[in-house]
Amino acid sequence: MSYVDGFLVAVPKANLEAYKKMARLAGTVWKEYGALAYVEAVGDDVPYGELTSFPRAVLAKEDETVIFSWIVYESRKARDEIIARVMADPRLQGDEWKSVFDGKRMVFGGFEVAVEM
Of 48, 78, 64, which Cα lies nearest the Cα of 106? Predict the structure, then answer.
């Protein structure tokens, strides 16, 4: 079974195009190093729930949108190798991300795939 990294971030709507530009670069790098899929999805139907919701998870503000993204790998071992290479890649070493969204509010994790169809 494959392995998946999942991410959830709040991005100011004014920074959405800058985020997409950086995401395209990041996706290119991840794919070059062996990721099977790289997806960045902009919230379209993500209401602010009374108790839990995507916006609540990242403390999204009125002027922000939620980005839900995931990266698929062949295995956990492949993921660990790819991540090490991605993190060392000079194309992703700048501070540009810090000006586009607040990384302190990012939710992320690695997941073993239980069902794949």
Answer: 64
Collapsed DSSP state (helix, strand, coil) of residue 64: strand
pTM of this prediction? 0.92
Residue 24 token pair: 């395209």
| Helices within 41-112 (DSSP H only) | 54-57, 76-88, 96-100
**Smallest Cα–Cα separation from 78: which of 112, 116, 41?**
112
Average pLDDT, the chain: 94
As its CATH architecture, domain 3-112 has 2-Layer Sandwich (3.30)
In a 10 Å sphere around its CB, with 0-12 CB exposed, 13-18 middle and 19+ buried, how is residue 55 labelled?
A: buried
Nearest to 44 by CA among 17, 66, 18, 16: 66
